[in-house]
Amino acid sequence: MARILITGSSDGLGSLVAQRLVKNGHSVVLHARNAQRAKDATFACPGAETVVTGDLSSISETKAIAEQVNKLGALDCVIHNAGLYRGGFRKTSDGIPALAAVNTVAPYILTALINRPKRLVFLSSGMHYQATTTMDDPLWLSRGEAAFNDGDAYCTSKYHNILFAKAFARRWPDVTSSALDPGWMPTKMGGKGATGDFEDSVASYVMLAEGQEQLAQKSGGYFTPGKKEGTPHEAADDVAAQDRLLKACEEFSDVKLS
Fold first, then answer.
1. Which residues, if any, are the signal sequence (predicted)?
2. Residue 85 designated active-site
């Protein structure tokens, strides 16, 4: 049995994956943004071990989530599933777009502060191929709201998550670190017109969370629905870009990697 944390698991794919992992006999720690969402998460997945709460758009609350998780004991896997897609700039109290905070900064902070698990899974998207791959201003600190675009910001954040997967695979050889494109699914984020198959997506999540299959033991990989390995944007292999992203997150959050 493994203990697995899934961020953003009050609904959508996160909840479906949690339910499947519980069914498979694992101990699942859910995450929700607030108390009401925590109730929703528990109702949808009553077999979960517990639920941690906190808003991932806030640096202080994200740090508090890490503290909650560490008090529970060792984890086998962390799935960075939470993410934002649209909604405009929505400047956080820390001064960056909410999308950048949730999709990029929060996975960095949680990975840095949670006691190191055996496996890390960072959620990407096929839309990362359209990303801006330069690391000049990854958190929109200089460009600001006038230059912000939902589509570009989302695509780029999903590229960031592949950079994270590869960076941690390189830096932490004792941890299997992977990126996952869950596919275009008819969730609240994906919309009713999405054509993906939930079962294929869940199968890939579960494969990486359990880490038993040979393919899942390859650190630094990029995976797609149906338990398949894909080929990400070639720029994701740029070690300098990986390190620039880590540095930008470290300086902004004041959280250093061990």
1. none
2. no
